Amino acid sequence: MKKPTTLRKGKGRRTFLKAFFASAAVSAGIFEQAGRTEASPGERSLSELPSGDGSLLRMQRELQRAMKKPIHERRWVMVIDLRKCIGCSACTIACVSENKLPPGVVYRPVIEEEIGTYPNVSRRFTPRPCMQCDNPPCVSICPVKATYKRPDGIVEINYNQCIGCRYCLHACPYGARTYDFGEFYTLGTPEVQPYEKQPSFEYGRQWPREEKKSPIGNARKCSFCIHRLEAGMLPACVATCIGYATFFGDANDPESRVSQLIVKPNAMRLKEELGTKPKIYYLV
Amino acid sequence: MLKITKALLPLLVVLMVLGLFGAWDRLIHGEKNLNLGSYLPWGLWVGSYIYLVGFSGGAFLVLFLHYALGIRSLRRASLYALPLALSTLGYGLMLVLADLGHMERFWKLYLQPNPTSILAWMVWVYTAYNLVLVAMLYALVGGKNRWLKPLSVVGFLLVITFGGGEGALLGVLGAKPYWNSGLLLIRFLFTAFLSGVALVAFTTVFFRHWPADNEHRDALGFLRYFLLTVLGIISLVEFAEFFVIHYAAVPAVLEARRLVIFGTYWWVFWFGQILLGLVVPAAILAPSWGTRPFLFGIATASIVIGNAASKQSVVLPILTAPDLHTLPKAFVQQRFSLVYYPSLTEWLFWLGVGAAAALVFLILIETLIYLQVRKEPAVIAAASGRSG
Predict the structure, then answer these.
(1) Which superfamily does CATH assign the domain made up of B3-384 to?
(2) What CA dihedral angle connects B73, B75, B77 and B79, to 10 degrees?
């Protein structure tokens, strides 16, 4: 089985430069996204990737390959290698920045635990995005069908349908849903700064932060950055992870990196006993 | 009009004015000034709603016992029960409406409901129940007595549905092991019966329009036995829960139980649920002095307060347990707190709507009793001796 390629195992300066420009290409997609049209993914031409065999480039190629398939033939999966996670929270911040998250809303916190007692002590960092459960308890309880599972397995929230009852927050066993109370970081200062009112692009639409309009007053959660996937880009947390600890791809593609990782004996999921069948796997 | 009613009116008006400030803040500033968060997303308003609809259902039980089962001693109590059922239902639903992030989308619950959601079903059941209550009020005022029996049967079926459904709302959540029990449905249904009947009993004592004659004593006698029976059932549920949880000792459930008994809100369980909800009323009602009006009134007030605590002690402590251990420390912000105390906006709105509901109750009770007294000229003299 092919081992993950990391910068540290690269072949010197050339490899480093390839990986650097590849990461830059991935990040640059964020700006490309802002100007995109409403064309469907099939019609949209995905950004051309530089050559190279870096971890991110490989996953992005796999992603673009998956995007060419019909939506119901894709099964997005995220794998988080806890042995590699250093708890830097770059993924948390990338997610906040990508989705313009206000105070009180977080999609991917990193849980920190200290295990053992001195002198046998270790720390564990567990990023916790939405588990995108195959059997999501948040869906059946929503009174107005505002949350549902897409054919590719991503659990989506229709902000314009959500009435803000917050019942789904209780239903999630992972605490993955938070609520937008309409706050701003610069609230209480002379002026709420314009950057806080910038729209997020969640679910492929523009969501400017305006008083009493969605997503304010809605339940919110990680969407695997659907808007980025549709532009052929990896989720922001994956592209930002400095330790290459997060992997993403189509589990229906036997050649994909995630397909190879999730069958390993050290792959586990949170609270499997509940039967929610999360699509986030942890390598422990 | 009773002296107590006259004394309450100005207080209620003041509270309603204060409530307008709460309503204004909620409408203008949205939910920014609510002390809720993502880990404690429901607070005073939803907690009260769960309790208030229980009141309504319990009060309706008195109507069912009188009109459907023909228990004559509850004739006068049933006049209090209908306004109570209406006003507490309206109070609860107003609170839960204000709690919605998008109140303006409320209509979606009717036109675009999710058939697999208990919450959606509850809205439909409440609506049907509300229609039954209005129809009963119309029948009482309009003298259409033949409607009352079938309406009380239909209403009772709806009460059973939403009384248990309230417990099911929480009971079906597999994410919360402590709630995830069929026993919760039974507990919620019977606490609804207990608190609603106790409230009817309380009002018949402290808002009494009739002399304390034999009919009054018969009513108190019946209600006393009824309340003692339901107290017994709830004690049984309490014991069953205690036994199963501690015998099975499933860590997650045991931890939640520990939070209920010894957590931040331990006093709600011990002083509210156990002392006021069970011990005090049982101690007053069980001996023969239990039907003395003043003591009976104290016992029912104790049940009303204690069962409010009972619902809160089932709900609130469980929310203080994070879904994943140490999750609250992963991202620290005010909205991720595990401690909740209602904000001024929440209190003001809660008080204001409560005062409005109380006013509706007083107006309805005065109207219904006026109409009843017109039919019973013999009691006018006795009644006028008590009215101001």
Answers:
(1) Formate dehydrogenase/DMSO reductase domain (1.20.1630.10)
(2) 180
Contact B41 A217 (CB under 8 A): no
Domain coordinates in residue numbering, chain B: 3-384
Share of chain A above pLDDT 90, in %: 77
CA distances (Å), origin B114, targets A149, A176, A270: 14, 22, 28
d(CA A102, CA B102): 18
Cis bond upstream, residue A119 (ω within 30): yes
Q: Which helix (H) or strand (E) holds B326?
A: none
The per-residue pLDDT for B388 is: 36
Measure the CA dihedral B362/B367/B368/B369, to 10°.
80
Helical H runs in B172-213? 183-206
Write the residue in B30, B41, B327 that is nearest to A109 by C-beta. Answer: B327
- The C-alpha atoms of residue A103 and residue B332 are separated, in whole angstroms, by 10
Count residue pairs from A and B with Cβ separation < 8 A: 154
CB distance A260 to A81 below 8 Å: no
- Please measure the distance between the N-terminal and C-terminal CA atoms of chain B and give it in whole angstroms: 6
Express each pLDDT in A20-71 by its tens digit. Answer: 444 444 444 444 443 343 444 444 566 677 777 788 999 999 999 999 999 9
Cβ-defined contact of B123 to A105 (cutoff 8 Å): no
Contact A231, A44 (CB under 8 A): yes
> What is the rounded CA–CA span in Å between residue A266 and residue A251?
17
- Contact across the interface for B100 and A164, Cβ inside 8 Å: yes
Q: Domains in chain A and their CATH numbers?
A: 7-283 (3.30.70.20)
Contact yes or no for A154/A132 (Cβ under 8 A): yes
- Amino acid letter for position A98: E
Give me the interface pTM, i.e. the ipTM: 0.89
Give the three-state DSSP class for B109. Answer: helix
- Residues of chain B positioned with their CB less than 8 A from the CB of A179: 36-38, 41, 101, 335
Contacts of A48 (CB under 8 A, 6+ apart): none
Name the residue among B376, B281, B362 with its Cα closest to residue B8.
B362
**Contact residues on chain A for B116, CB-CB shorter than 8 A:** 140-141
Give the helix, strand, coil percentages of chain B, each rounded to 5: 80, 0, 20
Closest alpha carbon within chain A to B337: A104
- β partners of residue A281: A79
Q: What is the DSSP letter of B387?
A: B
Q: Do A172 and B323 touch (CB under 8 A)?
A: yes
Which of the residues A133, A181, A272 would you substitute to probe the B interface, choosing the one with the greatest number of B C-beta atoms within 10 Å?
A181
Q: In whole angstroms, what is the distance from residue A210 CA to residue A48 CA?
A: 35
Average pLDDT over residues B319-341: 84
B324 vs A111, A142, A161: nearest CB = A111
- Find the CB nearest A167 among B116, B119, B330: B119
Cα of A211 to nearest chain B Cα, Å: 8
Most A CBs within 10 Å, among B36, B114, B172, to test the A interface: B114
Which pLDDT tens digit goes with each residue over A80-93? Answer: 999 999 999 999 99
Q: Which amino acid is at B203?
A: T
Of A182, A202, A181, A176, the C-alpha closest to A99 is A202
Nearest to B323 by CA among B127, B112, B137, B177: B177
DSSP label of A124: E
CB-neighbour burial class of residue B307 (10 A; exposed 0-12, middle 13-18, buried 19+): buried
Between CA B324 and CA A92 the distance in angstroms is: 17
